[in-house]
């Protein structure tokens, strides 16, 4: 629409110019100008729509879903749009390496990276991670206890990890939401998740993204080592 309106406004100038170029065997220049106008007008229309009508988070939403194949909601796109819209002093993060991560963990990886960048900017982290929720639940439970006796009588039965909050946090980090029956399940979960953060997969990413992958690997290694020290050889 805007391109057509612009063409009508420029008609008194464009017609004589077209005739002049064609008569001088310079028709190719006219074709170049015409295509430059069409492409420029199209891009300008998109920018104008984005600034006036379209929601600011829509490009981030489309980019996450169609380019890095990560399903996010409109609300989540709003909260992480700073990664893609250039608002960080013109910087943005393509995050193509996320396509190499297991689809089950892509959303988590994207949200954790958004939290990292937000924290570095001094902002509140936009996403609560599973272990954050679990940590808050344990904190609330501890505050509700009225005596040390109640705490001492809490047991760590199979399928429960209420006696040691760190166990639950480490399980959540590895993608496990309850205590598995075998340590082999913990080992399999660790191997599956850490495979997505191999340095080779992030070799072409920006330094911040590579640092994030290294931090995630260390976090996964710590979680696995902690669970190994508690349960290796002790589970059926």
TrEMBL record:
<protein>
    <submittedName>
        <fullName>DnaJ domain-containing protein</fullName>
    </submittedName>
</protein>
<feature type="compositionally biased region" description="Basic and acidic residues">
    <location>
        <begin position="138"/>
        <end position="153"/>
    </location>
</feature>
<dbReference type="InterPro" id="IPR001623">
    <property type="entry name" value="DnaJ_domain"/>
</dbReference>
<keyword id="KW-0812">Transmembrane</keyword>
<keyword id="KW-0472">Membrane</keyword>
<keyword id="KW-1133">Transmembrane helix</keyword>
<feature type="transmembrane region" description="Helical">
    <location>
        <begin position="28"/>
        <end position="49"/>
    </location>
</feature>
<feature type="region of interest" description="Disordered">
    <location>
        <begin position="138"/>
        <end position="163"/>
    </location>
</feature>
<feature type="domain" description="J">
    <location>
        <begin position="169"/>
        <end position="236"/>
    </location>
</feature>
<dbReference type="InterPro" id="IPR036869">
    <property type="entry name" value="J_dom_sf"/>
</dbReference>
